[in-house]
Please model this.
Amino acid sequence: MSRHTVRAAIIQHACGVDYEENLGRSIQGIEEAAAGGANIILLPELHTCLYFCVEAHTRYFDLAEPIPGPTTNRLGEVAAKHGLVIICSVFERRSKGLYHNTAVVLDTDGGIAGRYRKMHIPDDPGYYEKFYFTPGDLGFHPIQTSLGKLGVLVCWDQWFPEAARLMSLAGAEILFYPSAIGWDPADNPAEKERQRDAWITVQRAHAVANNLPVVTSNRVGHEADPSRATDGADFWGSSFICGQQGEILAQASADKPEVIVADIDLDRTDEVRRIWPYMRDRRIDAYQDILRRHIDDE
Model:
C-alpha cells in the first residue's frame, strides 16, 4: 500500500500592533517551513494583530477585513509560490455590524479552499470575544484540499469533544486548531502548569478518541490590557503536532517564536481504527440526551 504522508508545520510567533510586521513574521515562518519540505502550514489565531479581545472597545472593529481580502490575498500568493496549503486566521468583516473569527484554508494554487467560522465564543475576563464575534454558522464540515480533507476548528472549540467528533464523522483526516491562549501573570506557577497541561491533554484526547492527528498552534509573548482591568496575558506557546494515538510528534517551547515540522502518516488512521474501533462501537441509538443542555433528575 502506498503511504499518504503530509509534512505539517506550525508557525509560532509573537504579535504586535503593526499589521505588516505581524504578517511578515507569519510569511517568514512559512518560507522557513517550506524550505524544510512542509506542505501544510498552520498559523496562530488572529496572527496579524494583538489579541484585542482582552478588552471590549468598538475601535477594534477597524481591524476586521473581508474574505477575500488583504490577508488571504497575500498568503494566497505565498501558498501558490510554494505549492502549500496554508490555514490562516482572519477577523472577518462579513457585512456592516456582522463579524466572525474565521479560519481560512488556502490551497496549493493560492485559491480559497474553504473557511470555518468559530462556533464556540468565550466571554470571560481578558477574553471578551462575544463582544466582537457572531457565532459561526457554517457548522462542522471538513474542507477538501489537494492534500487532504482538513477539519479546522478555532481555539475555544478545542475544549469541546463534540466539535472534534463531528469533524471526524464528516471525514476529516487531520484536526487543526489555531489558538491564542495564555496565562494570567498573577497566577502561581503550579496553576499555570495545570492550565497548560489541561490544554495539551484535552487536544491529545481528541486525537485518541477520533484516531486522528491533531495540529495546534499558539502565539507567544506578553500582551498588555490597555484598559488595565487585568494584568494582560502571557501567551504560553507550546504549539504541537500529535499523531492518531495522541503521541507528540513535535512541540514548540512556551516562550519563543519557532517553526515546528512533523510528518503525518494519514494511512495510520485506518490501521489504528482497526485495533481501537471506537467508530464501530458507538451507541448512536443511545446518545439522544447529548442534545440537551442539562439532564435534570426526574
